């Protein structure tokens, strides 16, 4: 079994790789010495706060700033007219489109908390007071919140494409087709079906999302940001502001928790624009309320499994229909659904697989990247489904996973040949740790030799 | 009413690197006349310890002391492009870029040292303590700092290296879903033990015992940090956390950490883990990504344990006391219902 791999591991004689050296920044973090974006201050710095939609779906008739402008310390307001390329989508950098999300709402808001206008003021308090005095004339529209309701004819339309789903190369979902599931179901002794549902979840980082943009004397702008991806934020900001990439200088690298929540490029474009328009440094950092209710959560998912299983516990067909609630706009969800489709059949070798994974638009806060990107909730559903299969067939939950475990050399539903697989060894180690005695035939199995120790 | 216990398990795989690839990262290394090597990046440390593990990989490849490797990140004026810290990619991608850069810098270093020692570069090795020695002749050596000084002031040479790692982008076949979605696969298996109070519906996670297979570990303490931190996130996802408690309705959204429940010290279960190391074929020193996957296995293991304890089949997250009580009610049958029908528990709050 994997002799070459094990020998390679045994031969290693590294000096510092593999050693638990103390982390470089640990002492700074625990003593409060580490400098985060919130610690960046400049003389004359302005504060930016957002006017946000109080409702999930509405036509904007007008916005009245007259009372806000009277607040002492008010400097100016920015609306969609000030943003050079107001409609964008973050993943345009890797070819995902079309552009769909406004930096500032134009004539319609599509989720509660959507930014409508940015207020700049001398102090944070003045900015908040001015925001509170903005009068909104909104005409509420019917909203849709359920992913399957959103796909029905007659549902309120969220997206500008006219359909409430992301279009994958002309298709209404990301598809995986491997083998023939109908033939697999015909061979099966049991059909095991279940639907799994999850809700949106917040990243809850210690440090909230934000940045400080400072115009420099040479005409460039320095942006201190807690983004997870510095160039990604720089490139999107330049595209939205229609300025040459060379004009922007992004600084960061020390972040108080990301978990995927800080790849949205959500504060840098408007803050950089504000700095350019006023010629002054500008700070925009989310409050905890904004982080909780406005920042992208982990999307809610609905996953429907239909598995064909033989009496001896082999899964011979797996059909999955899944829905990611993207909320009102693309952000990272179209890409998450593709990663989801690659992984939602699980670490099991199944000869017939049929996957329809949908990226659905609703009037929820846009979802986005979150640790486990399209896979966490797939793993949840898969592993509950495996227990249901075990109970249906009358086998032990461990046994059902070993019987179907993927191994090196197996072809996965996306047709890549599996490599670096140690699924069986990992389960054997966990069973040992937990004091669960596995039967001999499971202990004899390994990820390299399909005949080793396998029963039947 | 009683407290009942149950056990559940789950096992998962997790891919390393951005789905479909096409996510390059670069690294630049140079020796300064202080004797330090500076690794310039634009990569972000999210708190997971990237700056530390990248310095370890750089020091290992260069063959110099860890303390003499300085990480300079992140600044787009000085650091070359990095796609970003996500997709369990940073140690794999940036680590590979750093290895490539370090090998080039090491060659330049040994060339200068060879001139100084009047030896062939092939006969030299780094001792890991700041000196370059002629193999087998320990007294013929020169320090790294003297080599750096000689390179700059005597030979007019730079000691520097460039590195990049890129997995070419794969396209998805829209009809079949054929694609290349990973660089390598890490694995985990968790056994959870829970106690459920059938009167209040409250779940307590008693223990989480996990095995992880993450390729070569660069820093075992930081891997353990991911495993423990991810397990706590997993408990939160399994039992407490959501921004829309009545999803798909949007009301009653939490606004702060008093409303948005997360596991605290009181909810810490007994945690034990074992880490297997099967080196990956393409990671630096055989690493695989451990960043994201550590919440994924505890979640289904905990829910399977709850179902095992109660003899029910809960299929939603999070498994709040309300979900537990409704599942118990369904198991008992509607005639014995003792819960209000609508909007429990908000409608009956005093």
Detailed description of the structure:
The complex is a heterodimer of chains A (456) and B (350). The model of chain A has no long low-confidence stretch (mean pLDDT 96). With 456 residues, chain A is α+β, with helices and mostly antiparallel strands. In chain A, the strands form four sheets. Chain A has a seven-stranded mixed beta sheet with strand order 3-7-1-14-11-12-13, with helices on both faces. In chain A, strands 9-17-16-15-10 form a five-stranded mixed beta sheet, sandwiched between helices. Helix content of chain A is 27%, strand content 22%. Chain A folds into three domains: 3-33, no CATH class; 39-141 and 204-293, Aldehyde Oxidoreductase, domain 3, CATH 3.90.1170; 174-201 and 297-443, Aldehyde Oxidoreductase, domain 4, CATH 3.30.365.10. Chain A contains 14 helices and 17 strands. The two termini of chain A are 20 Å apart. Chain A has helices at 3-11, 26-31, 66-69, 124-132, 147-150, 181-187, 230-241, 268-278, 288-293, 333-343, 376-393, 397-404, 423-434, 440-443, and strands at 46-52, 58-64, 74-78, 87-88, 101-102, 108-109, 115-121, 135-140, 174-178, 190-197, 210-215, 221-225, 248-251, 282-285, 301-309, 315-327, 353-361. Chain B is α+β, with helices and mostly antiparallel strands and 350 residues long. Chain B has two domains: 3-15 and 182-348, Aldehyde Oxidoreductase, domain 4; 25-165, Aldehyde Oxidoreductase, domain 4 (2-Layer Sandwich). Chain B is 28% helix and 23% strand. In chain B, helix 1 (50-62) packs parallel to helix 2 (90-117). Chain B is elongated and about 90 Å long. The model of chain B is unreliable at 337-350 (pLDDT under 50). The interface between A and B is large, with 124 and 122 residues.
